[in-house]
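User: Hey, quick favor. My workstation is busy. Could you predict this chain's structure for me?
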Amino acid sequence: MKKITALLVSIALLFTFAASVQAEAKPVTVWIGDEQLQLEESQQPIIEKGTTLVPAEPLLEELDFSFSWDQQEQVVTGTKEGLNLSIQMDNPVALVNEEEQQLLAVPRLVKGNAYIPLRFVSEAAGYEVSWSSENRAVSLEVKEPSQGFLWKAENAGNTVYLLGSIHVANEAMYPLRPEILEAYEASDYLVVEADITNGNVETNQKLVAEISTYKDGTTLKDHVSEEAYKKVEEILKENGLEPNVLDSFEPWSVSSTLDYFTMLKSGYDTSIGIDAYFLKQAGESGLPVLELESIESQLQIFDNFSEDLQEEMLLTSIESYYAEDSSLDQLTETWVTGNEEELLALTSETTMNEELYKTLLKDRNIQMVEKINGYLNGQEKKAYFVVVGAAHMLGEDGLVKLLEQKGFTVTRL
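Assistant: No problem, here it is.
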């Protein structure tokens, strides 16, 4: 029996090893859509730490990049349509449009060829990457662009593009469809709710502190329930902060902080929100930026909320923080697919609280439309790319309806 057992173990080990050798012997292939990336015998892909490395030149050229190689610095550069990649051999950090990005595997020279991480390059170029272990094949598929919510109105030689924005985003929201980018490129002005790039960070922080903190000697504990306060303490400690660090702040401001923690947990980022994206583009190209509101006016809106509404906001933020599913995922899916029906349904939820709806949407929409009306009736004959929260767009009090009531034809693009 022992001999049989030993034999079975030996066979198992032998065939496991043999299967492994056979699998490793099968070359890795790279597919871009239905076309296989053609590589010379000396340029076959290699796998390190679960990451596929491929020769830089054939990959970049197949993905329509302009390829260049700096022998002295040993740097590969790929450029196309506003996307610039810089990858240095033996450096675990690459640059995407001058921004650093950590690599999962270090680029290196192999038999005189510069090998770079396939996934890094492909995802930067807007492809979705998948791996078939059975076929030992990497597949690159063109990622479908986000539809978003874009409208257009024209009058007297002036054009207004209305883009419904989401202020926080993840990578799933990019790339944007060409019509959105073309509308931006055709515009003479970028218009946002508030220019978050205007002014220095320290000044804005002082403004937030001035408006959102108590001045009468009371603290957060005096204005919310004991249960809500304890939950805030727990969340702050969970995020490495002192439990009383927000005691001087009003509930709406604390609610905003908790929403920020929820956003980070869910993989979202304000720096790649739709409005932030276009503000960055405008900053790089020098496109003038106009505001429909301002950071200060937006802070004042929240500061003027009733205590009941502020506590309700705080409780909702606490609930969202502990929720298993992020509501941001649903909002992102709605934006990516450009589903008006779902957007209207999400907007309608705001009407459940009369004060919130009137203050955040109805009243602000009226003021925004007056400025947009001015753009459409201006003497300059210019094009304006207006980026505001998507919730402002639809419904009886939405920007689209209000503009139509003023006699403009508003067309969904």
